[in-house]
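Deliverable D4.2, example record:
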Amino acid sequence: MLDLAGYGPISTKYDIGPPVWRCLFTHTGVSRIGGMAFTVVDGWTVPGFTHERELGTGALGRVVLAVDDQTSTKVAINYLHAGPAADEAFMAAYRAAARSLSHLEDPNVVDLFDFVEGADGAAIIMGRVDGVSLRRVLGVQRSTGPLAALSMFGGMLLGLAAAHGHGIVHGSLRPSSVFVDGQGNCLLSDFATAPAGTEAQHGPQYAAPELWDGAPATVATDLYAATALFYECLTGRPPYTGRNLAKQHREGPIPAEEVPGPLRTLVIEGLAKDPADRPKTAADLLGALEDAAVAAYGPSWEAQGRGRLAELSAQAAALPEPKPARSSGRHPVVGAAQGTGGGRTRWIAAAVAAALLAAGGIAGGMTLLKDDDTPPPPTPAQSSTPQPTLPEGGVNPGPLVARLAAATARTPSATFSYRRAGLAPATAKGTFTLVQGGAPAHSMTITGSGDTRKAARTVVLPDGVHVQSGKKWRKAPLNGQGYPALADQIRWSGSIAAITSLLESATSLRRSGTVYRGEAPLGELTGGGGTGPVFAEMARLTGAEKIGFAVRFDRSDRPVQLWMRALGPAKNRQQTVNAWYSGWGTKPPITAPR
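Output generated by the structure prediction step:
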């Protein structure tokens, strides 16, 4: 489906907006995007799109950059070759996957807008991504360094966790199906595009042993491939190369000695020969990654890794673009530079500037410090009243909290992903809207443990929680059990109110670029409504007396990531929360489902 193959920067991902419903084709389950105007490029094309140019041809089909005539959304369309389109088993499997993928909205997964079938052919319509492929990055850099590799691995696991939660297995994860955008985020594409039984041939250097024996692709094979990619980011080469890859994957020793010591366990477990010995889920492997990364590199590892990835992406994009290949045996690229000439130059300049700023902020520490963050100590001439004592580290949280409140009031809506590991694990993804003077409203898909381990769609409003059951929704009180209770916990523990409480209660607070790190006593966080019960439950479960946290902000003083950990007196009594935020803006209010 997608394969950047080193084509450089490509245009921004958009929401495609409401579809225009037309009975142009007959197929099951996935919506039609229609219209009238279209440009014919080498045969049948999907109506309703004007084609810009063709990128290349691979094993699955040819990819064309196009614009939706109704919404002006820039997309990439993969026109399937006659062979895959005539393979009834493959088409049936991909229809089912496309049906789920079209409903999957996750910041670590490339959007699939539509799968169109007609008498003359089939085509996949997908989003374009602002970035370059991991294949392109590795082709330029060979290896990324441990922090960037960890950030890449974490992004891959988040995307896989989201897809696995929808019952979708990737099957053939490889460098050409992983993207790095201009902000250092990782996105996955190419889900379910390898026909059953051919997965090992589509990504032989990353294919789990059981795939070579004809076993179907599973969650375990995806985790193996993601770990192999992580290994290549660390070392500059896949774990197994050369001839007879099947035997090497089945019998070869795991070359963990080439991996930095603190990260070897991740590689050993992820590349285990027996799928039963690998982590059970992407969330489990992500939890082990988080623990190893924090222990080795500190709580700001992810921010530093993401900054390094942004820098590597910009460097790869700045090099001359190779000419599109035709019959490379791999899938062609999604995307290329938007526009021509000056547009590409401006994108590269902006990306390089952003990357250098991110890297400089992390490395230089105080270079981005604003004047009001560390005011000078008062003198009798300035004030005759006692001044507040700053937290250890010298950063005054007051101005930061004020800027956070102002920034989120201007753009009160965002997309988020959430993960709670350790005790009471949970994951979530969706959108939220802040309400002035009230509780935030959320629309999200959540999973927990026990009776909440199955993914469920929820809408959390001030007057209750709506949970989807089949095609119907049921309303429950906020203090209910099961999914309602879990949804309420998630909305508060990853909320702006939680970030504000942590900053205001911090006994230590330091700044490194755009990352603020600190500690706060749990006893001071447990009072009041909203976030209070969440911190109280964290203290009860872990027995911890304080919480460590880190918050990364964008240049507009809005949060990009929240990390917090409560570590109790017993080693197995800990809880870690990660929340990621993106797409800040003003969106329609979240309302009760009908």
